[in-house]
Specification:
By secondary structure, the chain is an alpha+beta fold. It contains eight helices and ten strands. The N and C termini lie far apart (65 Å).
């Protein structure tokens, strides 16, 4: 009897430890701890503070370790084989959100690879019906403020992700480096998780987008381009996205870049509206949002991007 109680107690303690690790594995929780440790280590060496380069490296470590911990506990779910597409579950954004503007970068050659991406057969954008319904609410919200949504990407087939992986492994191919990753050596793209073998886009409820100002007839100035590989794309670059506070601190930028208070505020307009209508953000890309209650959290689809018939 005593052994059974001990075993149960150990199981309960183990469960508590796992829950604490899961709670602590968020990148946002790991990052301050990692920065504090790095500063302490520098102080022991007689160095005040932490350099921008070291800070960027520490943040990268926090992101990688967060993903590894969560993957280790199976928080991403087990990927299912992509079923035959049930197009009743997907809609074209142009139909579901008629006020949205489409600029499908992966159908064009203006993207970080410099060629049309596999699986993009037509310049359209698809989403699950649930995500599209929420995006329509976002569109109505920003339209009342004088904006339209501009869509860069939505559902992304697995073959497109595979294309990214092949390109990233081809180190000499740096055609678009000056435009999308001038501060990075291409060899670190896997290590820093800019390129991964799986993408949330492939589950059908993630969208990359920005705002278009109807008064100026131009994209809203976000202080950086879509698909820029670097800390300048992080929502917390030069500010605190949780409190919408602009700090102007661009010290993590390896090239000393910064964004203005207005550019940070523009990012926050997009972010707060998306969150208000059921989307969750990505901590490394200001333009990337996933429906929090996505209908296919474990399924990665393979059908191409084309108009639905």
């Amino acid at each position: 009897m005593k052994q059974r109680r001990t075993s149960k107690l150990l199981l309960i303690l183990a469960a508590i430890v796992v829950l604490v690790l899961i709670w602590a594995s968020s990148e946002r929780r790991l990052r301050p701890a990692y920065i504090s440790i790095a500063k302490f280590e520098n102080k022991m060496r007689g160095i005040d503070g932490i350099s921008a380069a070291s800070l960027a490296e520490v943040k990268g470590d926090a992101r990688r370790h967060s993903l590894l911990i969560r993957k280790g506990f199976g928080l991403f779910g087990k990927a299912k084989e992509a079923p035959e597409a049930n197009f009743d579950d997907f809609v074209e954004i142009a139909e579901a959100v008629p006020d949205a503007i489409l600029e499908i970068r992966y159908y064009s050659t203006y993207n970080f690879i410099g060629t049309r991406i596999d699986g993009y057969l037509q310049p359209t954008a698809l989403l699950t019906r649930e995500a599209a319904d929420s995006l329509r609410a976002v569109s109505d919200d920003v339209m009342a403020k004088g904006y339209r949504l501009k869509i860069y990407d939505a559902y992304r087939p697995q073959c497109a992700v595979d294309h990214f992986v092949r390109w990233a492994a081809d180190i000499p191919d740096t055609l678009m480096k000056p435009y999308f990753y001038p501060d990075l050596d291409k060899s670190v793209l896997f290590e820093r998780l800019y390129i991964m073998e799986k993408s949330g886009h492939t589950r059908g409820s993630t969208v990359d987008l920005t705002l278009f100002d109807m008064a100026t007839e131009k994209e809203v100035d976000m202080g950086g381009t879509f698909d820029w590989f670097g800390p300048e794309s992080h929502p917390d670059f030069c500010g605190d996205p949780d409190f919408k506070d602009y700090t102007g601190d661009g010290s993590v930028s390896p090239a000393g870049r910064s964004i203005t208070a207005e550019q940070f505020a523009n990012r926050m307009i997009l972010r707060s509206t998306m969150l208000r209508h059921g989307f969750k953000p990505l901590e490394s890309e200001w333009w990337h949002f996933t429906l929090a209650d996505e209908p296919y959290p474990d399924t990665y689809f393979s059908f191409p991007v084309q108009e639905l018939k």
